[in-house]
Sequence to fold (941 residues):
Amino acid sequence: MSHLDALMTAEAVESGRGQRTSLLCHRRLAREPLVLVLWQLGAEPFSAAAIGWGTSEADFHSAVAGDPRNRTLSFAALLQLAQDFDVWFEAPSSRRETIKRGKRDVEVATTAPQVVVANGATLALLGRLGRRLAYLPTDGDDPADPALVRLGRHLQFLHNHAHVPGQQLVVVMTELMTGNWATGQSNVERQSLNALDAYIDPPEGMRGFDAAVIAEELSVGPLPRGEDDEKLEPLVQKFNDVRGGETSPAIVGPLLGLIAVHYAPLLQRAWQVVWRCFRREAAFEEAPSCERRWFEDCRAYSSHMDWVELTGGRRRTRKTARQAVRFLHDLESAQERLVSEEALDDPLRMIPYLLDGKAIRGTVLHVDRDHMELATKRNVRRPLVAIACDEPCRMPVGKTLYWTGDPSGPEWRIHAVQNASDGSTVTVKLMTSSPHPIPPPGEAASFSILNTKAPYWRLMPQEDPWTHRTEEEQPGSEHLEDRGGGTP
Amino acid sequence: MIYDEAAVAGAEEVAAAALNDFLSRRGSYGAVVLSAVAGAGKSYFVSAAAHAARREGMRIVVCAPTNEQAFSLVRSIALMNERETVTFYPASKVSLPADIAGIPNVREAREAVGAAHANLLIGTFDKLGDAFARGNLYPVDGLLADESYQADSGRYFGVAGLASTHLLVGDSGQIDPFSTVAMADDWRGLEENPLQTAVGVVARNHPELTSIHRFPITRRLDDRAAAMATAFYPADHHFVPALLPGVREMRLDSSLSRSGVATHLDEALDLAAAGGWAHVELPDAAVLSADPETLETMVALAARLFERRPTLRCERLREWHPLERHRVACVVAHNDQKDLLRLRLDEIGFADVVVNTANKLQGLEYEVVICWHPLAGLTEADEFHADPGRLCVMLTRHRHACIVVGRAGDRVLVESIPPSTPAYLGDDHDPLAEGWRTHQQVFATLAAHRVTV
Fold:
């Protein structure tokens, strides 16, 4: 926990409501996202008993399976989702622009679909549903509707992409809010969107803690409370008795009524809280770096859609050693960049760095553009900037920093530190002689350990080395996806 | 008598067997692993192996995870093989420290061409992997990897194709490969896991081509330190100190009477000088990572240590000689602790006392170490802070004494039942439970050396 989080948490407890830990919204929130709410039957983890979806609060669609343990019934409900979802999800792919990447032109969709879910458990269920649907045969004895398979492959992509730090194709409401609000709750308690929402904005006259205690009793899925499923059990029992093994829509359809009535308030509860939270977050100004990350999201989406177009979208269930190395490297790079961007975009997010002695802030006293010093062999120009800071500087001489006004620019180093009782004078040195922007005297300036340089691209050898090949694989065997659309 | 001759002879046999195993596999696929505990003389072994491989006419590449580790390999290999040109292949922004670059048979390859033709090439996993992927390096006869329990499978992927025959040297007790992204856990137990160790991936994919030798001694640690170190290694990895008890000694001027905290400091220093360990426990408190009280205690310990004019003698120098400041290190878990400690030590004129994080001090050795206990002042023993590998690095860097500074509440954190942790099929490791157990064992061993403030 950072010093700022500790303080804000204390303030949240004191004031009885959530305290904002960022000034901006650090994810792009789409104008027309698709909100998806799910309920599963008891602890049955590979199907959905009730599904709600739509692209605005008024646009609510729902489907119930009746008994999701029955494959046909489960798929029938999912097919209703698939028919809407696939069309909506695939639509942005048709509008592309050409972007130069090195020597290659890539066609990137100008926008991408965004799915909003309540919590990590919902995302995990979508991932499992994706895994279940993506490989269904669409011919043979018991063919699955191709729309279902397509839904599965899109969900598989989204679930995988959701691992990328800072991605915006999937918004997990609890994660977004945990990043932006301090409350007097543990991380486990914050997994309940209802409780988190109640603490942040309790009803009139109530303290956040007390509101959260009440709200916590009301789940928003996908795991049902025991009491809810106890009420459901006789309904499902009766439904199964009456349909007598039949699964055809004509017979099953009219029997779903009571089960749909049971789920209607549960779906509505989840639906409303997700939209309420979404609107609250969307009211904050979007952080500037969201644009760059959105472009990365559009690229990932476009590449997925190209793969679907080219091959139908079938992927390996597990990554190869090569893909795993690449993916982990990409995730770590994205993580590092995200952390930097959020702090550089948002003064409140920079505070922990100032408090931890990982950044300095002050007024530029003077600039010596002509300072020379001996590098390895000859004298070179190393401009100096002296900054008057209100705080003592706790970083040692020689520490590498970046000017927050040019965070993708060259390195600076701490050249000298004079600490006094009421602050410090810190001299930083630009580590290159080529002309670069320098903060002018009299202006406020901050230097921090954070930079937004493009991460280094890890090159991989053409062949998998013998150490990483198992017995069955022959040297030089190549996986189709290594050439094509990348990993799932 | 200075050394346990039988133990040393036994170790030399293991080293010779591992080396012969490696040399005899030339030209075929295979990995020879030498697993050793802290301070076993791994760097010496790597240098000797490089020497032997060159004598057989093998062209070799030698790699380590970090630049600092690669630098020290360049130094030791060059000094052992004076007639052999040792080529270091640096990343673009890196260059050898002047004293190593100045060794006559050391060359720095700034161009790929120079590296590709070298008979003995040294670099980091990342640099050599990058050059190989660019087609700037071609396969050679042997790959020697140091710290191969710290190198992850992903890095190894980059360089493993450089040779069919590998010699992997490492210490299984130190910090495991780790990631900043939580998702990496999803791969645990799977063969594609990029975070398993280099040794782990080859042993898993090719058990029949991998042979593991275990080095049975430690040279750095004496009997007092080695007793603690057993907490960090599997029970079936037997090792003993090469040194006989009592060879290393540290003397301090008698503590002049002082008031308040200083008496605790003196008590701790006396314990450390006599028994090789001291555990200073500050009062229980929940604090943020760069806690000023812990920091000032460490600074005061360093200052008081030198006020008492410490002198040493050991197997290398039998005469009493003064302890030098650059042979003392403060080891911490976090960078903010490091920065603050550096600043305070500089202020009292102790710029040459080393301060660094455990990760950066892996493989290095000092006479006296002052350790900021990783659990100090925490409210919860999480996986990072309870990591047994980090504690292992912190408590096995010293030749004479180690002073651990923590808080009275730290022991309580690992006294209760460990929290439940997710399990992964095919992965028997439970880092948190292992850390829990190791910390308990270490606290128990430190009990005899404890000073409560």
Remarks:
- Chain A touches chain B at residues 1, 3, 6, 163, 165, 318-325, 328-329, 331-332, 335-336, 356-358, 376, 394-396, 399, 458-471 (CB under 8 Å).
- Residues 474-488 of chain A have pLDDT under 50 and may be disordered.
- Residues 9 and 182 of chain A are 5 Å apart (CA to CA).
